[in-house]
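Case study 2.
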Amino acid sequence: MEGFDAIYYEVEIDNNEELTDISLVPDPVVIRGAGNMTVFGLSNKFSTEFPSGLVSRVAPEEFKETVMRINGILKKMLPVNVKWLFCGCLCCCCTLGCSLWPVICLSKRTQHSLNKLLEWENSYLYNKLGLHWRLSKQQCDSSSMMEYVILIEFLPKVPIYKPD
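Prediction:
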């Protein structure tokens, strides 16, 4: 019962001390669409030029192969989307906009296919290298419109503790 009426003081921790334990993660690498056609914010291709932010993290050949797989899906899916968009715009007045639903569904299907591909690439290769690829919607630099970009995020390194 000695410490029953003792007064204990809280010690304040300086915010600078907390920051030393946090590992800093670089900003994600953004790959914007490089095609000449965009349907609902999704460009018809992405650039295969190797970004400088990925040097010493991934081989340029692996990066190029992944982007070529993405471009393959876009090359297969987007021409169909454009045809449906054209037909939907022609019939838009008569159908009160309902003729655009097939284009919206096809666009969602394309996004889903790209997300599935990126999930597979992440689990197969990139998560092991400390990277995570994902399709993200961002505002365009030149206007207030939205576009889909590929974000390559850096995963924080988690220390592995081994019991003695």
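Residues 24-47+59-154 form one domain.
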